Amino acid sequence: MKNWLFFILLVTGFTAQANVILTDVYTVGKGKQPQISVDNAGIVRVVYGLDDKVLCATSTDHAKTFGNPVLVAQVPGMHLGMGRGPQLASSGRWSIVTVMDQAGDIHWFKQSSGAAKWQAMGIINDMKGSAPEGMMAIGADNKDNFYAVWLDVRIGKRNQICFSSLSAKSGKWAANRIIYQSPDMHVCECCKPSIAVAGNTVAVMFRNWINGSRDLYTLKSVNGGQSFLAAQKMGLGTWKLDGCPMDGGDIRIGAKNQVQTTWQRKGEIYFAQDGDPEVYIGKGKTCSLTGKVEQPVITYKDRDTLKMMALSTKKASVIGEGDFAKSVQITKDRFLFVWEQAGQIRSRLL
Question: What are the record keywords, sorted (predicted)?
Answer without folding.
Answer: Signal
